[in-house]
Each structure stands twice: as structure tokens, then as C-alpha cells.
Amino acid sequence: MNKIDFAVGIGGENGQGIASTGNILALIFARRGLHLNAYNAYQSIIRGGHTFLTIRASDGPVRNMGDKIDVFIPLNQDTMDRHLHLLKSGACAIYDKEKVTPEKAADGVQLCPMPMKELTRGNKLAVNTAALGGTLQLLGIESEPLETVISRQFKKKGDAVVAENLAIARAGYDYAAQNFTAFSWKAPRGAKPLGIITGNQAIAMGGAAAGVKFYAAYPMSPSTGVLMWMAAHARELGIMVRQVEDEIGVMNMVIGAAHTGCRAMCATSGGGFALMSEAVGMAGMIETPIVCIDVQRAGPATGVPTKTEQGDLWQVLGAGQGDYPRIVVAPTNQLDLFHTVPELFNLCDKYQCPGLVLSDLLISEGTTSIDPDDLDFRVKIDRGELILPNGNGNGANPASGYNDNAYLRYKNTASGISPRAVPGVPGYIFTAATDEHDEDGTLISDEFTNPQKRRMMVEKRARKMQGAIKDIASPKLVGSEEADVTLVGWGSTAGVIREAVEKLAGEEGIVANQLAIKWIVPLHAAEISAILGRSKNVILVENNQSGQFARYLRSETGFDGHGHIRKYDGEPFMPHHIVEAVKTQLAGETRLSIPVHEVNA
Amino acid sequence: MTAPAAPPATTEPGQLTKETYRGRIHPDWCPGCGDFSVLAALQTALFELGLQPHQACVISGIGCSSNLPGYVNTYGMHTLHGRALAVATGVRLGNHELKVICAGGDGDGYGIGGNHFVHTMRRNVDLTYVVMDNQIYGLTTGQCSPTSVKGMKTKSTPYGSVENPINPIPMAIVGGATYVARAFSGKQKHMVEMFKGAIQHKGFALVDVFSPCVTYNKDNTYQWFNPRVKILEEQGHDPTDFHKAIERGYQWGEEIPIGLFWRRTDLESLEDLEPVLHTGEGPLAFRPLGISPEQAQRLIQELL
């Protein structure tokens, strides 16, 4: 069955209500049962600049923003000038005929000028609403869903505002019906109504499912959505949420709460994570489980705060001085973020180490459709060898006792895992120290700095990863083993690579397969080596300049990719970027492709 | 999973003695260090307040004085340089039934940890902060600290420090601390009273202690402090008088006040103000994990 796949692009200045317009459209599509992906290319200013939101929807899977725009809504001249030339035959542009003038459009592009002043009765803020009405008409969607969502969206502003917006939406809808030609296809319907979710919401909800009781953060784009969700739901869910003076304080506070037995979490972006680094090492040293999410944005330093990148891999791999075990994971999409957070908490509790999640602006701020049945909050909870006073942990029930000298918090075991008591439990008193310490917690620097003890403790902690790797899924090759080319990515590029593989097969006759890496540390090096060793041509795809994952893969496996596709202009990959780069590389023209983002400068 | 063997109970509740609070190891401070007196005063205060060792957590940063948690038989955390208060806030919020006592030095608290100091005070987190203020960096062998007096010659200021020192007492009073006191290692009994008052106080309590460094600070010695320190409690100081507290806090020179400068009991602590802690379910750390099906349903509903 042929799937119908279409995209709406809305652009203008920040402050023109593009995000809320996009939200209305996304809700309408999702309620219709369509899968969707929405990506907002915006800037770090509250008013002005250029913002462009792409919502792609289909009755089939939608894994990224796609390659084309079907309905283009430029709310200002700047947007018209930057994007019109990218429209292909069959697309249409809806705009205010008094404010925006098109230059040359491709043949077959339908220009849809609307008399916005008249349709909105002079309400400049409602131009989007009229354009939405027009858009739905062209897509063959009845006006009723729009009315329902508008009523809900504007409810807080009162009946008069709702009535005004409904009238304007209707006027836009009717104007389009009378003056423009609807698409030859109609927006399809899906099997059942869906919801919409951002990656940051998914992270926060995953945390709630995992039983997070303490969340701290310092606001930093693009991670702030997690803080906002947590703050809004704190009291309902019994979560302590704190906005802290800086990210150093955030991580230290999270470790303090985790040390008492709470599941504790924080999210930040690369700059904030840099400030947390020393404390992440403390979590490693005192063996306190915490989960931290680094929502990557384009760096270094302040970088491009509202643009996406996969540039923090080495920062996270090397966070904090010295050697210590950590778990690093790069989930591949929003739903994966939801599932990964509880799984990571279980691993961190079991192995008593920090767990670091690499998300990025693309999936954290990006919106996707979600089947409510996929959001199962009844997750497995494994707290490892945790000793709580009321026996809620998996470890021993505490015996009562005082002045105990027998408990060894850092007992040297075969697994490297030592039963973990928390403050408040009678009979298990110890001091957790960031200095190297003996099994009972005593600083080895307090006595003769014993080289044998130091070595024993380093090895005890390191040994935990031998167990952890067995609990972590090995990456699987998707597609034919006999492919011409294997595309390797990590984290958020999984969706766009998947579509590129389909396009290569469907449009170019090139058989490609895909290896998406999610668990970064510990890495299934042997399995990955075996898969890639069988591949004819391995191309690594990543959203950074230096090939951070390619270098990591080489350091862990000795395997050097045959080719590389890298993008570091702040915008995510589109499927055609990868398709074209693969063609060029298979033709032997280059081994390093840097796709050009086509939007006019 | 193997459960650890149940530890033998060596002391029954109700049998607390001063010895109960002695840690496993002997302090590695220099002979004569002011910190010995602070440790003894803290142990005495814990004993006299009858706190069970497992109900207290002593949390430090890094420095000579920050080695203290290992010398006290309570739960302890020896964290990172400057971070004790941030960690302690997390501990208090995770388990608000624990008595939390932070300990550290002047460089740790007022230098590298200055940001956390300011914000922990304004939040009025219910904990006690003991700063062993020796006006020098000892563990790094004698450099200038944020409380080194102007003109002091140290290894990092061989021509004399040109910077003004921080005065923690007025800073804490205006910063939002609700119990602000100073003690002196040469007056241990008085220090015990300051500690007991701080631990019992509901809110952020600072006790800045003149704890002389006998190895690296040749200016601010026991001999220098002894004739100068005057006990506020013996002078009829009213700790609820804000302006007097500030005035006495600034006093330095021939007479230097020690004692309780400032206390207010009308402000709620951070813990008091957080409804999540007052649901009757005990400390967050010990509550069951996960959310109810009704809560999950409400969260999903928001996405539709």
C-alpha cells in the first residue's frame, strides 16, 4: 500500500507564534492517527531572527524531517526568500498577499496569496490561524479538528479569543476552498489516535517511571524542557525538583540525594556538563549511582545554543580525571529515550556508577507522534545490592546495631559490586571518600599509601564493567548482510539513516544496511568488529566535524571506516544528504562527504 | 545476589558514651592543630545531644580540616573541594530526617565553594556548617586564603597579600543564614555550646571557628588570639539585634568577638517549605519507586 507522506513548513520571526502553530498542526495530525516528526530550526533570541518549523506526517513511519515541503507558510519576506527556491512541483505556498511577495518559484508550485488583513480583521497575531485554515483545506482535512484544537489551545484566554480565532480559521479555510486548488491526494487517516511528545518530555517521563525522587538542573538550552516538565509535575509525583546556582552544584546535589538512596537525575547541555565533570568522577569514586543527560548542542563554548550537533562524545567519554567505570548511552529517538532512562537507572544501581545519556537538540526538542500504548510506566526496577532501613532495597535487611566496624562499604568482591548501605541505616556506618580508600572507606592516604590497596580498589571498580557489558544489548545489523555498503551511526541519526537506506534501495538500486550504535560504554567491540569485518564498505555518519565516533570506534576496535559523512553546520541530516553522499563515495569520488544545507544564507 | 553478613551490634541504644563518636582512625593533623579541638567539641556536642551515630551525616570538602568525617563515628562523606554544601543539600532533601553537619576550611567554604555558601544560606537549608578558619591553605603547604588578612606574607603572597579578606560573619548575616556564630579552638567548652545551638537550630547555621594552623600561619596563632577573643555571651550581646550583630561581626583588632552573633527563628527552612517532604511518607530516599497507574494515565492524557 502506498503511504502518503507530506510536510508543512512554517517560517518567520521568533515571536510570530510559530511554535504554537506547529503544535496545533501536530496535534491535528496525531489525533488523525498520523505519524509525524516536527523539527524547529530556531535561533537564540526571543524576538526576531529566522525560525523554520517542519512538520512531516504520514500513515507510515516518520523517522525524521524528510527532504521536501508540500505546504510552505512564510510569515515574512525573509522566509519566502530563503525557502521558496527549494519547493518542488506540486507544492504550494500560503502567504499574506499584502506583506510577502514571491520571487520566482519552480514550475508547478501553486502560489496561494491570502488577503490576511481582511481574513483576520486586522489581528496581526492571527495570520497563522488563517494560514492553518487554508493549509487544512488544501490537505483535504475537514475544519472540525482544527476548531477542536483551537478551542482547547485558546481556552485559557477566554471565550472571546476562542470565538475570534475560530472565525479566522474558518475564513482562511473557506478562502482557500474558493481560490486555491487542493492537493490531488488527501491527508490520510491512521489506525488510531496518537499523541505527541518531545524528547525532553520522554526523558522526564522515563525518569518518573524509573522512580526518580530528586531532579536538579540549571536552565540550559536545549535541555531545559526536562526541568520544566519536572517542575510542573513535581508535587503531583512526589519528586523534589531544584533549580541550582550552577551545574557544579547540580551534580553535587544530585550525588548527595543519590547517596541517601534516592534515584536522582539531572539534564544539561555540553557547557553545563563540563562544569559537572569533576563531580561525575566523584560518583565513580564513591560508587553512587546517578543519571545525567547531556542534550548536545553545537559547541564549543557557547557555540550555537539552538542548533544540533553530536559533538560531546569525547567530553562524556573523558569526563572527570582518572579512570573509573561509567555507562554511556546514546538513545536513537524519543521513545527510546523514555525506555532507556529506567533501564540505565537499573544498570547504575546494580553497578553503582554514573550513567550518562547523550541526547541532542534534534531529538530532545524535536516532536514525534507517540502511541499511548508504547508508554508503559510499569518498568522493571532493579536496585542492585542496596541496603535501605525498611528493606525496600534488594540488599540485606539491615540488622540494628551501633558502632559497627564489620561492614565494608567498598568490599572487594569478585563482581566488583559491594553491598551499598545508605545513611540512616543502623549498623552500617562508613564514610564515603573521594580520596582513594580501603574497603571500609578509610583513606589510604591517611596511612602508608599502599600501592597494593590502591591497585586492588582501582581493579575492583573497573571489574564492574565486565558484568555491565553482559547486561547491555549488542547492536544488530539491520538489512541485508550482502549489502554494498554499511551505514554506521550513533544516537539520533538512526532514523534518518534508516530512511536513507530505504531511499538508496528504492530510488538508486543501492543495497545498504545499517548498524545503529546506542550503548557507547561499555562497547560491544568484538561484536561490532565482527559485523563490520564482513561489510564491503563501511561509511560512518555523524553530526560533527572530527568524526568523534569514528575515532572512538578505531580506538576500541582498530576498525577504520572506509568513508565518512559528517555534518556540523548546526542543522540535522536530511535523507537526501546521506543518499547523495553514499552515491558519491561508491563512485569513488571521495571518502569524506560534508553535505551542504540548502537553505539560503 | 549475596547479602552481607549481619554486623554485630557492639553498642545498644541508650548506651551512648563520648567514645561512641570516635572514628576508626586517628587524625593525621599536625600536633597542636586547632582542628583537634573542633573534633573533640563536635563529638561532645553529638554526645550531649544524644544523637545516634546512624542518624547523623558529617559532610566535608577537601583540605586538612575536611578530613574530619573519617574521625567521627557517624555516616560521613568526604566530597570534593568546595562542594560539601551542595552535596549536603542533596543529602538533606533525600533524607530530611538525618542531622547533617558540614565541615571544612576557609579556602574550601569561602573560596572555591563560595557560590554554594551564598546559595545554601539564602535557601536556609537546615544544616550546620562548621568552618575551621585558619586563614591559610595548609594542605597545599601555606598559601594565601580568602580570610588571610591584608598584608599577610604567604608562599603565594611573598610580598604580602594586597587583597581584602572575606569577613564570613557579616556575609552570612546578610546572606540569609539564620544562626551565625564564631568559636575559637582555644575555648573548647564555648565551642561545644555553639555547636549544640547550631545543630538544634532549624535552618542554616554557620559556626566559623578560629582554628590556628600551627605549621603555616605564624601570624594568627593561639598566642595572638588568646588575649583578643571576647565571648559575646559574657558581654550581654543580643543575637536578635541585626545591626548590633553586623557591628560586632566587623570588629577586628585588639578585641575580636566570638559567640552567637545572630539568630532568627521566624524563617522556615527549605525543607519546611517543600510540600513533597510533608506527605507523611518519610524520607524521599526510602519511599517506593514508580508511579501509580492513575498518575501514568494523567501523564499520557497530556500528550493527546
Describe this structure in words.
The complex is a heterodimer of chains A (601) and B (304). Chain A is α/β, with parallel strands linked by helices and 601 residues long. Chain A folds into 4 domains: 189 residues, Pyruvate-ferredoxin oxidoreductase, PFOR, domain III (Pyruvate-ferredoxin Oxidoreductase, domain 3, 3-Layer(aba) Sandwich), CATH 3.40.920.10; 175 residues, Rossmann fold, CATH 3.40.50.970; 90 residues, no CATH class; 117 residues, 3-Layer(aba) Sandwich (Rossmann fold), CATH 3.40.50. In chain A, the strands form 4 sheets. Chain A has an 8-stranded mixed sheet with strand order 6-5-4-1-3-2-14-7. In chain A, strands 9-8-10-11-13-12-21 form a 7-stranded mixed sheet, sandwiched between helices. In chain A, α5 packs antiparallel against α6, α7 runs parallel beside α8 and α15 crosses α18. Chain B is an alpha/beta fold and 304 residues long. Chain B has a single domain, classed as Thiamin diphosphate (ThDP)-binding fold, Pyr/PP domains (Rossmann fold, 3-Layer(aba) Sandwich). Chain B is built from 10 helices and 8 strands. The interface between A and B is large, with 95 and 78 residues. β17 of chain A pairs parallel with β2 of chain B.
Structural class of chain A: alpha/beta
How many domain regions of chain A?
A: 4
How many helices of chain B? 10
What string gives the helices and strands of chain B in order? HEEHEHHEHEHEHEHEHH
Q: State the helical fraction of chain A.
A: 25-40%
* Quaternary organisation of the protein chains: heterodimer
Look at the structure and name the CATH superfamily of chain B.
Thiamin diphosphate (ThDP)-binding fold, Pyr/PP domains
Radius of gyration of chain B: 21 Å
As a whole number of angstroms, the C-alpha radius of gyration of chain A is 26 Å
Helix residue percentage of chain B: 25-40%
Distance between the termini of chain B: 42 Å
Give the second-level CATH assignment, the architecture of chain B.
Answer: 3-Layer(aba) Sandwich
Strands of the widest sheet of chain B, in order across it, are: 2-1-3-4-6-5-8-7
The low-confidence runs of chain B, each spanning 5 or more residues with pLDDT under 50, are 1-11
